[in-house]
Amino acid sequence: MAMPLKQRLTVWYVALFAAIVAVWGLAVVLTLSGSLRHELDSSLVSGATAIATELSQPKPRKFTKIAADALAALPAEQTAAQQLSATATVIAHGGAEFGASPLIDQKAIDRALRKGSPVSLATGSGDARLRLLVLPQPATQQLIVVATGTRSVDEAVSRLSRAMWWTAPLVLLAAALGGWFLSRRALEPVMQLTKSASAIGIDRLDERVAEPPGNDEFTALARTLNKMLERLQAGVDDKRRLIADASHELQTPLAVMRTELDVSLSTPNLQPEAVTVLESAREETDRMTRIVRNLLTLARFDEGTLQLLRKPINVLALCTDAAGSLAGLADERDVDVTVSGDDIVVLADAEYIRLVVVNLLENAIKHSGMGTSVTLAIDTAGDEARISVTDTGPGIPEEDQPHVFDRFYRVDRSRTKGKGGSGLGLAITKEIVEAHDGRMELKSRLGEGTTFRIVLPIVPPDAKR
Fold first, then answer.
1. Over the stretch 350-362, which tens digit does the pLDDT of each residue have?
2. Sign of the alpha-carbon dihedral angle for 2, 7, 13, 18
3. For the chain, how many structural domains are there in total?
4. How far apart are the two ends of the chain, measured CA to CA in Å?
């Protein structure tokens, strides 16, 4: 699984920073090492030149004293000087004891004498590593060799390297924290845009995301999202107008068709086959009429033109009447519908609340099995009235429950084509209840049935003012 962008940016930042620090650290170590060795060579050149100058005097001092003075700037225990013949014989020496033996071989002596100028060399290994300066004396065919150990230089470079290695984790940790902070700050506008955009649903397309200050890429992204929302809003508005216009225009021909079918069915001496066909056509016409009515109701909700005529209604009486209107369907499916509860009066639009109850009861009857029961219960909780419709059907899968109130959504395992339904009934139910300042609740378990609950304020908020 890909890491979030903040983490990827932090990892890239730390990796790049680590590479830069590694290159910088290597450059520092190499520069320090070269600088210290250059200073060492300069001291050796100065010492060898001083010894050669002193030896060229008519009455030179003793070689050991000359060497001690000329090489005083170098560590005495690691430094030695010697005067060599062309045949690698030590003529005189001073300083540390290792200067008693020739410090260079015959090949190096011959090469230095041929060159006639100072030659820098390095010999030994580990703690015995030496830095040498060979100063040839062509006139006498002798050489002045000065040498000093590189231990101090190596230790200085080693200390710096260890310090860098020890502090590298802390530096990288600080870089990671800094990278995380910077990535959060840099991506904060994206997080705000994401939060704003995710809150805009199909019913809130008139809202827009806030444009970040400035004129950078995030501002351009916000403007692009707002332009996209404008296009979506225009398209949805056009679709809603089309549905509203089509629904309105279909009402009259459907009413005419229903009337003509009723007239045809009242004709005497109809053949049984003709009666079956006409009744089927009337049933489908009624179904289309309900769909058109639902679409028109939703269009009114979307346009904000739905008018609620609130007046005191007896909830128990309304539910009893709604259940009576579905007695034929209940008998056909052998479902026992019971209504129970207290006499509760609420301020609501009786026509629309009745439509809600009928929708829920019809769904419950259709989804319950033969010989089962549906319960419609009315009670109160605080200042709210509750209407609960419970069936003994197969239940609604948990993953489908958040979507049952979406428009045109149908649960495959319970809303099959054979049971009818357009996927609009529950959407309309939710819209009507929320328009009454109420809410819908759902409780369902597979194999145990489903309960839809309508919760309405006994006194709506606008009636309290």
1. 988 998 998 899 8
2. negative
3. 3
4. 55
